[in-house]
Amino acid sequence: MKALQKYKRTYILALQNAMEYRTDFLMGIISGGFIILVQCFLWTAVFRSSPQEIINGYTYSQIIIYSVLSGVVSKLVSAGFEGEIANDIKTGGLSKFIAQPIHYFSYRICSFFGEKTVQTGVVLVLFVVLMTVFIQIWGFPLRVGQIVMFLVSILFGMLINFLLFYSISALAFIITEVWGVYIAFNQGVYLLSGAIFPLNIFGDTFATISSYLPFQYVVFFPVKIILGSLAVHEIVSGLLLQAVWVTVLLVISKLAWDSGMKKYVAVGG
Amino acid sequence: MSIIQMEGLSKSFKYYEKELGLKKSLKNLVRRKSLIKDAVSEISLVIEQGEMVGFLGPNGSGKTTTLKMLSGILYPTSGQATVLGYVPWERKKEFKMQFSIVMGQKSQLWWDLPANESLYLNKCIYEVEDKPYNLVLDELTEMLDVKDLLNIQVRRLSLGERMKMELIASLIHRPKVIFLDEPTIGLDLISQKRIREFLKYYNEQTKATVILTSHYMADIEDLCKRAIIINQGKIVYDGDLRRVNELLHAKKIIKLQFTDEVPRQALSEYGTITQHDGMNAVIEIDKHDLQRLSKMILDRFPILDFTVEDIPVERGIESLYQKDGVRHESLAEV
Question: Which superfamily, per CATH, for B250-310?
Fold first, then answer.
Protein backbone atom coordinates (compact mmCIF):
# COMPACT_ATOMS: atom_id res chain seq x y z
CA MET A 1 0.00 0.00 0.00
CA LYS A 2 2.76 2.37 0.99
CA ALA A 3 4.74 1.43 -2.07
CA LEU A 4 1.85 2.35 -4.34
CA GLN A 5 1.72 5.80 -2.80
CA LYS A 6 4.84 6.90 -4.70
CA TYR A 7 3.30 6.03 -8.06
CA LYS A 8 0.04 7.70 -7.21
CA ARG A 9 2.05 10.78 -6.29
CA THR A 10 3.99 10.67 -9.55
CA TYR A 11 0.70 10.51 -11.40
CA ILE A 12 -0.64 13.55 -9.54
CA LEU A 13 2.56 15.52 -10.12
CA ALA A 14 2.47 14.80 -13.85
CA LEU A 15 -1.14 15.86 -13.88
CA GLN A 16 -0.24 19.16 -12.22
CA ASN A 17 2.68 19.57 -14.56
CA ALA A 18 0.40 19.05 -17.56
CA MET A 19 -1.88 21.78 -16.26
CA GLU A 20 1.08 24.15 -16.21
CA TYR A 21 1.44 23.41 -19.90
CA ARG A 22 -2.22 23.57 -20.90
CA THR A 23 -1.64 26.24 -23.55
CA ASP A 24 0.94 23.99 -25.12
CA PHE A 25 -1.62 21.22 -25.45
CA LEU A 26 -4.25 23.57 -26.83
CA MET A 27 -1.82 24.75 -29.49
CA GLY A 28 -1.17 21.10 -30.31
CA ILE A 29 -4.89 20.55 -30.83
CA ILE A 30 -5.13 23.62 -33.04
CA SER A 31 -2.17 22.55 -35.16
CA GLY A 32 -3.71 19.09 -35.43
CA GLY A 33 -6.89 20.81 -36.57
CA PHE A 34 -5.13 22.20 -39.63
CA ILE A 35 -4.12 18.74 -40.78
CA ILE A 36 -7.68 17.49 -40.30
CA LEU A 37 -8.98 20.45 -42.29
CA VAL A 38 -6.60 19.69 -45.17
CA GLN A 39 -7.74 16.06 -45.17
CA CYS A 40 -11.39 17.12 -45.26
CA PHE A 41 -10.81 19.39 -48.25
CA LEU A 42 -8.92 16.62 -50.00
CA TRP A 43 -11.66 14.05 -49.50
CA THR A 44 -14.35 16.52 -50.54
CA ALA A 45 -12.46 17.11 -53.79
CA VAL A 46 -12.04 13.38 -54.36
CA PHE A 47 -15.71 12.61 -53.84
CA ARG A 48 -16.83 15.52 -56.03
CA SER A 49 -14.74 14.40 -58.96
CA SER A 50 -15.81 10.78 -58.64
CA PRO A 51 -19.10 9.38 -59.91
CA GLN A 52 -19.13 6.75 -57.17
CA GLU A 53 -20.87 7.15 -53.83
CA ILE A 54 -18.47 4.82 -52.03
CA ILE A 55 -14.70 4.93 -52.35
CA ASN A 56 -12.61 2.12 -50.87
CA GLY A 57 -15.60 1.08 -48.81
CA TYR A 58 -16.17 4.49 -47.25
CA THR A 59 -19.01 6.90 -47.89
CA TYR A 60 -18.27 10.61 -47.84
CA SER A 61 -19.64 11.07 -44.33
CA GLN A 62 -17.68 8.08 -43.03
CA ILE A 63 -14.39 9.28 -44.45
CA ILE A 64 -14.85 12.76 -43.01
CA ILE A 65 -15.70 11.36 -39.60
CA TYR A 66 -12.72 9.03 -39.86
CA SER A 67 -10.34 11.90 -40.67
CA VAL A 68 -11.56 14.02 -37.79
CA LEU A 69 -11.62 11.23 -35.22
CA SER A 70 -8.28 9.73 -36.23
CA GLY A 71 -6.72 13.17 -35.87
CA VAL A 72 -8.13 13.57 -32.38
CA VAL A 73 -7.32 10.02 -31.26
CA SER A 74 -3.75 10.09 -32.55
CA LYS A 75 -3.21 13.32 -30.65
CA LEU A 76 -4.61 11.73 -27.52
CA VAL A 77 -2.51 8.57 -27.57
CA SER A 78 0.71 10.28 -28.70
CA ALA A 79 3.71 9.57 -26.52
CA GLY A 80 6.03 12.58 -26.51
CA PHE A 81 8.19 11.38 -23.63
CA GLU A 82 10.84 9.70 -25.78
CA GLY A 83 12.88 12.90 -25.89
CA GLU A 84 12.88 13.11 -22.11
CA ILE A 85 14.02 9.53 -21.80
CA ALA A 86 16.81 10.08 -24.31
CA ASN A 87 17.85 13.11 -22.31
CA ASP A 88 17.82 11.13 -19.07
CA ILE A 89 20.05 8.52 -20.62
CA LYS A 90 22.37 10.89 -22.40
CA THR A 91 22.94 13.37 -19.59
CA GLY A 92 22.81 10.92 -16.71
CA GLY A 93 19.44 11.92 -15.23
CA LEU A 94 18.63 8.23 -15.08
CA SER A 95 21.13 7.86 -12.25
CA LYS A 96 18.76 9.23 -9.66
CA PHE A 97 16.23 6.52 -10.46
CA ILE A 98 18.86 3.88 -9.94
CA ALA A 99 19.78 5.36 -6.60
CA GLN A 100 16.19 5.79 -5.39
CA PRO A 101 13.69 3.07 -4.53
CA ILE A 102 11.44 3.74 -7.53
CA HIS A 103 11.14 1.89 -10.84
CA TYR A 104 11.79 3.94 -13.94
CA PHE A 105 9.17 2.11 -15.97
CA SER A 106 6.45 2.63 -13.37
CA TYR A 107 7.52 6.22 -12.94
CA ARG A 108 7.28 6.82 -16.68
CA ILE A 109 3.93 5.14 -17.13
CA CYS A 110 2.42 6.99 -14.17
CA SER A 111 3.62 10.32 -15.44
CA PHE A 112 2.42 9.41 -18.95
CA PHE A 113 -1.08 8.73 -17.70
CA GLY A 114 -0.96 11.75 -15.42
CA GLU A 115 -0.28 13.92 -18.41
CA LYS A 116 -2.88 12.11 -20.50
CA THR A 117 -5.61 12.63 -17.91
CA VAL A 118 -5.74 16.36 -18.53
CA GLN A 119 -5.61 15.84 -22.29
CA THR A 120 -8.32 13.20 -22.14
CA GLY A 121 -10.57 15.68 -20.37
CA VAL A 122 -10.14 18.21 -23.15
CA VAL A 123 -10.49 15.59 -25.86
CA LEU A 124 -13.67 14.12 -24.38
CA VAL A 125 -15.34 17.51 -24.47
CA LEU A 126 -14.19 17.91 -28.04
CA PHE A 127 -15.42 14.42 -28.88
CA VAL A 128 -18.92 15.08 -27.54
CA VAL A 129 -19.13 18.34 -29.50
CA LEU A 130 -17.93 16.70 -32.72
CA MET A 131 -20.20 13.68 -32.44
CA THR A 132 -23.21 15.89 -31.79
CA VAL A 133 -22.37 17.86 -34.92
CA PHE A 134 -21.97 14.68 -37.01
CA ILE A 135 -25.22 13.23 -35.73
CA GLN A 136 -27.00 16.48 -36.56
CA ILE A 137 -25.62 16.59 -40.11
CA TRP A 138 -25.69 12.97 -41.22
CA GLY A 139 -28.06 11.31 -38.77
CA PHE A 140 -25.12 9.15 -37.82
CA PRO A 141 -26.16 6.15 -35.65
CA LEU A 142 -24.30 5.72 -32.37
CA ARG A 143 -24.92 3.21 -29.60
CA VAL A 144 -23.76 3.40 -25.99
CA GLY A 145 -22.02 0.02 -26.31
CA GLN A 146 -19.93 1.41 -29.14
CA ILE A 147 -18.76 4.35 -27.04
CA VAL A 148 -17.78 2.10 -24.15
CA MET A 149 -15.80 -0.22 -26.45
CA PHE A 150 -14.23 2.81 -28.09
CA LEU A 151 -13.01 4.15 -24.74
CA VAL A 152 -11.61 0.75 -23.73
CA SER A 153 -9.81 0.39 -27.05
CA ILE A 154 -8.33 3.87 -26.64
CA LEU A 155 -6.96 2.93 -23.25
CA PHE A 156 -5.31 -0.12 -24.81
CA GLY A 157 -4.13 2.04 -27.72
CA MET A 158 -2.44 4.41 -25.26
CA LEU A 159 -0.73 1.49 -23.56
CA ILE A 160 0.47 0.04 -26.86
CA ASN A 161 1.78 3.37 -28.00
CA PHE A 162 3.46 3.97 -24.64
CA LEU A 163 5.19 0.60 -24.81
CA LEU A 164 6.23 1.08 -28.43
CA PHE A 165 7.90 4.36 -27.63
CA TYR A 166 9.28 3.16 -24.33
CA SER A 167 10.93 0.24 -26.10
CA ILE A 168 12.33 2.35 -28.90
CA SER A 169 13.66 4.82 -26.32
CA ALA A 170 16.05 2.13 -25.12
CA LEU A 171 17.95 2.73 -28.37
CA ALA A 172 19.33 5.85 -26.68
CA PHE A 173 21.55 3.52 -24.65
CA ILE A 174 23.36 2.56 -27.85
CA ILE A 175 22.96 5.63 -30.03
CA THR A 176 23.88 8.90 -28.38
CA GLU A 177 22.07 11.12 -30.88
CA VAL A 178 18.81 9.28 -31.20
CA TRP A 179 16.61 12.04 -32.63
CA GLY A 180 16.72 10.85 -36.22
CA VAL A 181 15.51 7.42 -35.19
CA TYR A 182 12.71 8.93 -33.13
CA ILE A 183 11.47 11.09 -35.97
CA ALA A 184 11.52 8.18 -38.42
CA PHE A 185 9.73 5.96 -35.93
CA ASN A 186 7.19 8.65 -35.16
CA GLN A 187 6.34 9.10 -38.82
CA GLY A 188 6.18 5.35 -39.33
CA VAL A 189 3.75 4.90 -36.45
CA TYR A 190 1.75 7.87 -37.66
CA LEU A 191 1.24 6.27 -41.05
CA LEU A 192 0.87 2.64 -39.97
CA SER A 193 -1.53 3.41 -37.14
CA GLY A 194 -3.99 4.89 -39.60
CA ALA A 195 -3.75 8.42 -38.27
CA ILE A 196 -3.59 9.89 -41.77
CA PHE A 197 -5.75 7.56 -43.90
CA PRO A 198 -7.79 4.47 -43.13
CA LEU A 199 -5.43 1.55 -43.66
CA ASN A 200 -7.57 -0.28 -46.27
CA ILE A 201 -6.97 2.61 -48.65
CA PHE A 202 -3.42 1.35 -49.19
CA GLY A 203 -4.66 -1.96 -50.62
CA ASP A 204 -5.17 -5.52 -49.42
CA THR A 205 -1.50 -6.53 -49.17
CA PHE A 206 -0.79 -3.61 -46.92
CA ALA A 207 -3.85 -4.32 -44.81
CA THR A 208 -2.76 -7.94 -44.38
CA ILE A 209 0.75 -6.99 -43.34
CA SER A 210 -0.42 -4.37 -40.90
CA SER A 211 -2.85 -6.80 -39.31
CA TYR A 212 0.22 -8.63 -37.99
CA LEU A 213 1.68 -5.44 -36.55
CA PRO A 214 0.66 -3.62 -33.39
CA PHE A 215 0.38 -0.17 -34.99
CA GLN A 216 -3.16 -0.38 -36.35
CA TYR A 217 -4.46 -1.01 -32.84
CA VAL A 218 -3.36 2.46 -31.79
CA VAL A 219 -5.69 4.58 -33.96
CA PHE A 220 -7.28 2.62 -36.79
CA PHE A 221 -9.06 0.05 -34.65
CA PRO A 222 -10.60 2.44 -32.08
CA VAL A 223 -11.90 4.77 -34.78
CA LYS A 224 -13.42 1.87 -36.73
CA ILE A 225 -15.42 0.97 -33.62
CA ILE A 226 -17.05 4.39 -33.59
CA LEU A 227 -17.66 4.31 -37.34
CA GLY A 228 -19.78 1.22 -36.79
CA SER A 229 -17.99 -0.76 -39.47
CA LEU A 230 -17.15 -3.64 -37.12
CA ALA A 231 -19.41 -6.42 -35.87
CA VAL A 232 -19.50 -7.16 -32.15
CA HIS A 233 -17.35 -10.29 -32.42
CA GLU A 234 -14.79 -8.35 -34.45
CA ILE A 235 -14.60 -5.70 -31.76
CA VAL A 236 -14.13 -8.29 -29.02
CA SER A 237 -11.37 -10.13 -30.88
CA GLY A 238 -9.75 -6.78 -31.66
CA LEU A 239 -9.71 -5.86 -27.99
CA LEU A 240 -8.21 -9.24 -27.15
CA LEU A 241 -5.49 -8.72 -29.75
CA GLN A 242 -4.76 -5.35 -28.20
CA ALA A 243 -4.28 -7.08 -24.86
CA VAL A 244 -1.96 -9.61 -26.51
CA TRP A 245 0.10 -6.82 -28.01
CA VAL A 246 0.35 -5.07 -24.66
CA THR A 247 1.78 -8.27 -23.17
CA VAL A 248 4.21 -8.85 -26.04
CA LEU A 249 5.43 -5.25 -25.93
CA LEU A 250 5.85 -5.43 -22.17
CA VAL A 251 8.27 -8.30 -22.66
CA ILE A 252 10.09 -6.53 -25.50
CA SER A 253 10.50 -3.32 -23.54
CA LYS A 254 11.74 -5.22 -20.52
CA LEU A 255 14.37 -7.02 -22.61
CA ALA A 256 15.42 -3.81 -24.35
CA TRP A 257 15.78 -1.92 -21.10
CA ASP A 258 17.57 -4.66 -19.24
CA SER A 259 20.24 -4.88 -21.90
CA GLY A 260 20.40 -1.09 -22.14
CA MET A 261 20.85 -0.67 -18.40
CA LYS A 262 23.91 -2.89 -18.54
CA LYS A 263 25.42 -0.51 -21.06
CA TYR A 264 24.47 2.59 -19.15
CA VAL A 265 27.38 4.84 -18.42
CA ALA A 266 26.41 7.51 -15.97
CA VAL A 267 27.74 10.67 -17.56
CA GLY A 268 29.69 13.42 -15.84
CA GLY A 269 32.77 13.21 -13.64
CA MET B 1 31.67 -0.30 12.92
CA SER B 2 32.85 0.35 9.41
CA ILE B 3 30.02 1.50 7.23
CA ILE B 4 31.81 1.63 3.91
CA GLN B 5 34.47 -0.74 2.70
CA MET B 6 36.21 -0.74 -0.64
CA GLU B 7 38.72 -3.32 -1.74
CA GLY B 8 40.66 -2.84 -4.95
CA LEU B 9 37.77 -0.98 -6.53
CA SER B 10 38.45 -0.16 -10.18
CA LYS B 11 36.51 1.24 -13.09
CA SER B 12 37.71 1.69 -16.63
CA PHE B 13 35.83 3.27 -19.49
CA LYS B 14 36.16 2.62 -23.18
CA TYR B 15 36.28 5.70 -25.34
CA TYR B 16 37.13 6.71 -28.85
CA GLU B 17 39.76 9.02 -30.12
CA LYS B 18 39.48 11.25 -33.12
CA GLU B 19 42.28 13.31 -34.47
CA LEU B 20 41.76 16.73 -35.98
CA GLY B 21 40.54 17.07 -39.54
CA LEU B 22 37.96 15.86 -42.02
CA LYS B 23 40.15 13.08 -43.36
CA LYS B 24 40.43 11.56 -39.92
CA SER B 25 36.69 11.91 -39.46
CA LEU B 26 36.12 9.83 -42.57
CA LYS B 27 38.62 7.30 -41.35
CA ASN B 28 36.77 7.15 -38.04
CA LEU B 29 33.58 6.19 -39.84
CA VAL B 30 35.18 2.96 -40.88
CA ARG B 31 37.41 2.19 -37.98
CA ARG B 32 37.53 3.81 -34.62
CA LYS B 33 40.47 3.50 -32.38
CA SER B 34 39.14 2.54 -29.00
CA LEU B 35 41.08 3.37 -25.89
CA ILE B 36 40.65 2.42 -22.28
CA LYS B 37 40.75 4.94 -19.50
CA ASP B 38 41.20 3.88 -15.92
CA ALA B 39 38.89 6.31 -14.16
CA VAL B 40 39.38 4.63 -10.80
CA SER B 41 42.08 2.11 -10.13
CA GLU B 42 42.55 -0.11 -7.12
CA ILE B 43 40.95 2.03 -4.45
CA SER B 44 40.82 0.46 -1.02
CA LEU B 45 39.30 2.32 1.88
CA VAL B 46 37.44 1.84 5.11
CA ILE B 47 35.09 4.49 6.43
CA GLU B 48 33.57 4.33 9.91
CA GLN B 49 30.12 5.34 11.01
CA GLY B 50 29.62 9.05 11.58
CA GLU B 51 32.75 10.02 9.70
CA MET B 52 32.71 12.96 7.35
CA VAL B 53 35.16 12.29 4.59
CA GLY B 54 36.14 14.64 1.79
CA PHE B 55 37.24 13.54 -1.64
CA LEU B 56 39.47 16.16 -3.17
CA GLY B 57 40.94 16.03 -6.61
CA PRO B 58 41.16 17.79 -9.96
CA ASN B 59 38.54 17.34 -12.70
CA GLY B 60 38.40 13.84 -14.06
CA SER B 61 40.33 12.33 -11.19
CA GLY B 62 37.68 9.74 -10.43
CA LYS B 63 35.88 11.25 -7.44
CA THR B 64 32.43 11.14 -8.97
CA THR B 65 33.01 7.72 -10.50
CA THR B 66 33.84 6.37 -7.06
CA LEU B 67 30.67 7.87 -5.59
CA LYS B 68 28.63 6.43 -8.43
CA MET B 69 29.96 2.97 -7.78
CA LEU B 70 29.27 3.33 -4.06
CA SER B 71 25.68 4.32 -4.81
CA GLY B 72 25.20 1.48 -7.26
CA ILE B 73 24.80 3.60 -10.36
CA LEU B 74 27.88 2.12 -12.00
CA TYR B 75 29.24 -1.40 -11.99
CA PRO B 76 32.93 -1.60 -11.17
CA THR B 77 35.29 -3.24 -13.62
CA SER B 78 36.87 -5.10 -10.75
CA GLY B 79 37.10 -5.01 -6.99
CA GLN B 80 34.58 -5.12 -4.17
CA ALA B 81 32.68 -2.69 -2.02
CA THR B 82 30.04 -2.81 0.65
CA VAL B 83 28.00 0.06 1.98
CA LEU B 84 25.92 -0.58 5.12
CA GLY B 85 26.59 -4.24 4.50
CA TYR B 86 25.08 -4.21 1.01
CA VAL B 87 26.83 -4.51 -2.31
CA PRO B 88 25.67 -1.23 -3.88
CA TRP B 89 25.37 -2.39 -7.50
CA GLU B 90 22.97 -5.16 -6.55
CA ARG B 91 20.58 -2.22 -6.15
CA LYS B 92 18.56 -3.70 -3.32
CA LYS B 93 15.58 -1.71 -2.16
CA GLU B 94 16.61 -1.99 1.51
CA PHE B 95 19.91 -0.38 0.60
CA LYS B 96 18.33 2.40 -1.43
CA MET B 97 16.08 3.28 1.50
CA GLN B 98 19.08 4.06 3.68
CA PHE B 99 21.31 6.26 1.62
CA SER B 100 21.14 9.33 -0.53
CA ILE B 101 23.18 10.87 -3.29
CA VAL B 102 23.12 14.55 -4.20
CA MET B 103 24.69 15.63 -7.43
CA GLY B 104 25.29 19.36 -7.48
CA GLN B 105 24.99 19.50 -11.22
CA LYS B 106 21.86 17.43 -11.56
CA SER B 107 18.51 18.31 -10.14
CA GLN B 108 16.07 15.81 -8.70
CA LEU B 109 13.36 18.43 -8.30
CA TRP B 110 10.48 18.96 -10.70
CA TRP B 111 11.36 22.14 -12.49
CA ASP B 112 7.89 23.54 -13.12
CA LEU B 113 6.36 22.74 -9.76
CA PRO B 114 7.00 24.19 -6.30
CA ALA B 115 9.71 22.44 -4.29
CA ASN B 116 7.30 21.08 -1.70
CA GLU B 117 5.68 18.92 -4.40
CA SER B 118 9.01 17.27 -5.14
CA LEU B 119 9.72 16.92 -1.44
CA TYR B 120 6.38 15.25 -0.94
CA LEU B 121 7.12 12.90 -3.83
CA ASN B 122 10.34 11.91 -2.10
CA LYS B 123 8.40 11.31 1.08
CA CYS B 124 6.29 8.82 -0.87
CA ILE B 125 9.24 7.29 -2.69
CA TYR B 126 11.01 6.60 0.59
CA GLU B 127 7.75 5.60 2.28
CA VAL B 128 8.13 8.06 5.14
CA GLU B 129 5.13 8.47 7.46
CA ASP B 130 3.38 11.83 7.70
CA LYS B 131 4.50 12.67 11.20
CA PRO B 132 8.25 12.14 10.85
CA TYR B 133 8.06 13.81 7.45
CA ASN B 134 6.56 16.98 8.86
CA LEU B 135 9.10 17.00 11.66
CA VAL B 136 12.08 16.60 9.34
CA LEU B 137 10.72 19.13 6.89
CA ASP B 138 10.16 21.70 9.61
CA GLU B 139 13.58 21.18 11.04
CA LEU B 140 15.47 21.28 7.76
CA THR B 141 13.64 24.26 6.26
CA GLU B 142 14.19 26.13 9.51
CA MET B 143 17.89 25.38 9.53
CA LEU B 144 18.41 26.32 5.92
CA ASP B 145 16.03 29.27 6.13
CA VAL B 146 13.92 28.33 3.12
CA LYS B 147 10.54 27.95 4.75
CA ASP B 148 8.98 30.74 2.68
CA LEU B 149 10.30 29.34 -0.56
CA LEU B 150 8.54 25.98 -0.43
CA ASN B 151 5.59 27.15 -2.51
CA ILE B 152 7.60 28.77 -5.27
CA GLN B 153 8.25 27.05 -8.58
CA VAL B 154 11.69 25.51 -8.55
CA ARG B 155 12.73 27.23 -11.76
CA ARG B 156 12.19 30.60 -10.11
CA LEU B 157 14.60 29.83 -7.27
CA SER B 158 18.21 30.98 -7.24
CA LEU B 159 21.00 28.43 -7.56
CA GLY B 160 21.75 28.57 -3.85
CA GLU B 161 18.12 28.22 -2.83
CA ARG B 162 17.70 25.30 -5.18
CA MET B 163 20.74 23.55 -3.78
CA LYS B 164 19.25 23.87 -0.31
CA MET B 165 16.05 22.28 -1.59
CA GLU B 166 18.06 19.48 -3.17
CA LEU B 167 19.70 18.82 0.16
CA ILE B 168 16.37 18.76 1.97
CA ALA B 169 14.94 16.42 -0.67
CA SER B 170 17.77 14.00 -0.13
CA LEU B 171 17.50 14.05 3.66
CA ILE B 172 13.75 13.47 3.99
CA HIS B 173 14.21 9.80 4.77
CA ARG B 174 17.03 10.37 7.28
CA PRO B 175 19.64 8.42 5.33
CA LYS B 176 22.44 6.76 7.23
CA VAL B 177 24.89 7.36 4.43
CA ILE B 178 24.99 10.51 2.33
CA PHE B 179 27.04 11.04 -0.80
CA LEU B 180 27.40 14.64 -1.86
CA ASP B 181 28.91 15.31 -5.24
CA GLU B 182 29.99 18.94 -5.49
CA PRO B 183 27.25 20.31 -3.24
CA THR B 184 28.62 23.85 -3.36
CA ILE B 185 29.45 24.11 -7.05
CA GLY B 186 28.66 27.48 -8.56
CA LEU B 187 27.52 29.00 -5.27
CA ASP B 188 28.66 32.32 -3.85
CA LEU B 189 30.81 32.36 -0.73
CA ILE B 190 27.98 33.07 1.70
CA SER B 191 25.80 30.28 0.34
CA GLN B 192 28.77 27.93 0.40
CA LYS B 193 29.31 28.77 4.02
CA ARG B 194 25.65 28.27 4.91
CA ILE B 195 25.62 24.86 3.31
CA ARG B 196 28.83 23.88 5.00
CA GLU B 197 27.53 24.90 8.40
CA PHE B 198 24.37 22.95 7.76
CA LEU B 199 26.23 19.81 6.74
CA LYS B 200 28.46 20.02 9.77
CA TYR B 201 25.50 20.41 12.10
CA TYR B 202 23.57 17.65 10.38
CA ASN B 203 26.47 15.25 10.62
CA GLU B 204 26.91 15.98 14.32
CA GLN B 205 23.21 15.67 15.06
CA THR B 206 22.37 12.52 13.16
CA LYS B 207 25.72 10.73 13.17
CA ALA B 208 25.18 10.03 9.50
CA THR B 209 28.20 9.03 7.50
CA VAL B 210 28.98 11.62 4.83
CA ILE B 211 31.27 11.52 1.84
CA LEU B 212 31.55 14.70 -0.12
CA THR B 213 33.54 15.67 -3.14
CA SER B 214 34.56 19.18 -3.94
CA HIS B 215 36.93 21.34 -5.88
CA TYR B 216 36.83 23.86 -3.11
CA MET B 217 39.52 23.34 -0.54
CA ALA B 218 37.59 25.34 2.01
CA ASP B 219 34.72 22.82 1.91
CA ILE B 220 36.95 19.96 2.85
CA GLU B 221 39.17 21.93 5.22
CA ASP B 222 36.14 23.14 7.15
CA LEU B 223 34.14 19.98 7.27
CA CYS B 224 36.27 16.92 7.10
CA LYS B 225 38.82 15.70 9.57
CA ARG B 226 39.73 13.17 6.98
CA ALA B 227 40.52 14.13 3.43
CA ILE B 228 41.21 11.71 0.66
CA ILE B 229 43.04 13.20 -2.25
CA ILE B 230 42.52 11.38 -5.50
CA ASN B 231 44.51 11.89 -8.62
CA GLN B 232 44.26 9.87 -11.82
CA GLY B 233 42.05 7.33 -10.12
CA LYS B 234 44.45 6.62 -7.28
CA ILE B 235 44.50 7.69 -3.67
CA VAL B 236 47.51 9.89 -3.14
CA TYR B 237 46.73 11.09 0.36
CA ASP B 238 44.47 9.98 3.19
CA GLY B 239 44.39 11.95 6.41
CA ASP B 240 44.07 15.41 7.93
CA LEU B 241 44.22 18.04 5.23
CA ARG B 242 46.23 20.42 7.37
CA ARG B 243 48.96 17.87 7.59
CA VAL B 244 49.33 17.35 3.87
CA ASN B 245 52.57 19.28 3.86
CA GLU B 246 54.27 17.19 6.50
CA LEU B 247 54.05 14.32 4.13
CA LEU B 248 55.62 16.28 1.37
CA HIS B 249 58.66 18.27 2.35
CA ALA B 250 59.82 19.91 5.45
CA LYS B 251 59.82 23.41 4.04
CA LYS B 252 59.13 26.90 5.29
CA ILE B 253 58.47 30.17 3.54
CA ILE B 254 60.27 33.36 4.42
CA LYS B 255 58.70 36.64 3.32
CA LEU B 256 61.04 39.59 3.16
CA GLN B 257 60.58 43.32 2.77
CA PHE B 258 63.65 45.46 2.17
CA THR B 259 64.42 49.13 2.70
CA ASP B 260 66.69 49.09 -0.36
CA GLU B 261 66.56 47.15 -3.55
CA VAL B 262 68.16 43.70 -3.38
CA PRO B 263 69.05 41.84 -6.60
CA ARG B 264 67.69 38.35 -7.20
CA GLN B 265 71.10 36.67 -7.47
CA ALA B 266 72.07 37.78 -3.99
CA LEU B 267 69.17 35.79 -2.53
CA SER B 268 69.35 32.67 -4.65
CA GLU B 269 71.94 30.91 -2.48
CA TYR B 270 69.52 30.69 0.47
CA GLY B 271 66.74 28.74 -1.15
CA THR B 272 64.18 28.74 -3.90
CA ILE B 273 62.92 32.20 -4.76
CA THR B 274 59.22 32.06 -5.52
CA GLN B 275 58.61 35.81 -5.76
CA HIS B 276 60.90 38.78 -6.23
CA ASP B 277 60.46 42.40 -7.22
CA GLY B 278 63.48 44.14 -5.74
CA MET B 279 61.83 45.51 -2.61
CA ASN B 280 60.05 42.28 -1.66
CA ALA B 281 60.93 38.61 -1.91
CA VAL B 282 59.56 35.21 -0.94
CA ILE B 283 61.99 32.37 -0.40
CA GLU B 284 61.33 28.72 0.27
CA ILE B 285 63.89 27.06 2.54
CA ASP B 286 64.46 23.78 4.34
CA LYS B 287 63.03 23.66 7.83
CA HIS B 288 66.29 22.50 9.39
CA ASP B 289 68.19 25.45 7.99
CA LEU B 290 65.64 27.97 9.18
CA GLN B 291 67.56 29.32 12.15
CA ARG B 292 70.92 29.46 10.44
CA LEU B 293 69.68 31.00 7.22
CA SER B 294 67.36 33.57 8.74
CA LYS B 295 70.21 34.86 10.88
CA MET B 296 72.37 35.23 7.81
CA ILE B 297 69.64 36.96 5.88
CA LEU B 298 68.91 39.36 8.72
CA ASP B 299 72.59 40.21 9.03
CA ARG B 300 73.28 40.67 5.36
CA PHE B 301 70.31 42.55 3.90
CA PRO B 302 68.52 45.83 4.74
CA ILE B 303 65.42 44.18 6.21
CA LEU B 304 62.24 46.18 6.89
CA ASP B 305 59.97 43.22 7.62
CA PHE B 306 60.59 39.52 8.09
CA THR B 307 58.01 36.73 8.45
CA VAL B 308 58.22 32.95 8.51
CA GLU B 309 55.23 30.93 7.30
CA ASP B 310 54.20 27.38 6.56
CA ILE B 311 53.72 26.36 2.97
CA PRO B 312 50.02 26.88 2.17
CA VAL B 313 47.96 23.71 1.96
CA GLU B 314 47.07 24.51 -1.65
CA ARG B 315 50.71 24.20 -2.66
CA GLY B 316 50.95 20.80 -1.06
CA ILE B 317 47.83 19.59 -2.79
CA GLU B 318 48.93 21.07 -6.05
CA SER B 319 52.07 19.00 -5.98
CA LEU B 320 50.03 15.91 -5.13
CA TYR B 321 47.92 16.62 -8.20
CA GLN B 322 51.01 16.41 -10.34
CA LYS B 323 51.63 13.06 -11.82
CA ASP B 324 53.31 10.68 -9.39
CA GLY B 325 53.54 13.49 -6.89
CA VAL B 326 56.46 15.05 -8.74
CA ARG B 327 57.28 18.44 -7.35
CA HIS B 328 56.34 21.38 -9.36
CA GLU B 329 58.16 24.58 -8.78
CA SER B 330 58.23 26.23 -12.15
CA LEU B 331 54.58 27.23 -11.80
CA ALA B 332 55.25 29.20 -8.67
CA GLU B 333 58.07 31.06 -10.32
CA VAL B 334 56.03 32.39 -13.20
Answer: ACT-like. Chain A, domain 2 (3.30.70.1150)
